[in-house]
Write a structure and sequence with these properties.
About 25% of the residues lie in helices and about 30% in strands. Strands 1-7-6-5-4-3-2 form a 7-stranded antiparallel beta sheet. β5 and β6 form a beta hairpin. The longest helix is centred in the C-terminal third of the chain and has 28 residues. The radius of gyration is 16 Å and the shape is globular.
């Protein structure tokens, strides 16, 4: 594991869709809740809550909740270009960059998480944990947008499953 990159990783998934549809999947609260979150709350810099059908923008703040987890993730949107790129803080000071590239009838969704600390807790919890989490949620994004099937476990009596 000498040459293992503990500070960043990239995941990619091809999805039969359009860049504009998948950009909304990441930047409109009600859309990101379809495949990723149980609740997405966004606020403008002035504290105004963003409506569930409005797009987010740079400098907006978020509070994210998932099914079956009590943790609330808080962060800031660093960039939202309105077309094909989104950047936000995640897991503390990590930076997640989403880029969307159309290739014929497929969009390549590329997610890079960087700025990961290299202490043992961050290696385990962020580098390995987020890598696994993003892998599942990118597959769920593909499933929801290509076939409509949400793979998330929402049954509180079935915890510790691969899909929750």
């Amino acid at each position: 594991m000498e040459n293992f990159n503990w500070t960043s990783f990239t995941k990619k998934v091809p999805i039969k869709s359009t860049v504009s549809e998948l950009y909304k999947a990441w930047t409109v609260p009600k859309e990101i809740e379809k495949w990723f979150l149980s609740e997405a709350l966004y606020k403008r810099a002035n504290g105004e809550v963003i409506a569930s059908n409005e797009s987010i923008a740079a400098n907006d703040r978020y509070e994210w909740s998932w099914f079956l987890y009590e943790t609330i993730e808080k962060g800031k949107v660093l960039e939202a270009n309105g077309v094909d790129c989104l950047k936000f803080t995640f897991a503390g000071d990590c930076i997640v960059t989403i880029s969307l590239t159309q290739k014929e009838e497929t969009v390549i969704v590329s997610l890079t998480q960087s700025n990961i600390p290299t202490d043992n807790q961050s290696k385990r919890g962020i580098r390995i944990g987020c890598d696994s989490g993003w892998s599942f949620f990118l597959v769920n994004l593909k499933s929801v947008y290509e076939g409509g099937l949400d793979l998330r476990n929402k049954d509180e009596s079935l915890t510790g499953m691969l899909n929750d």
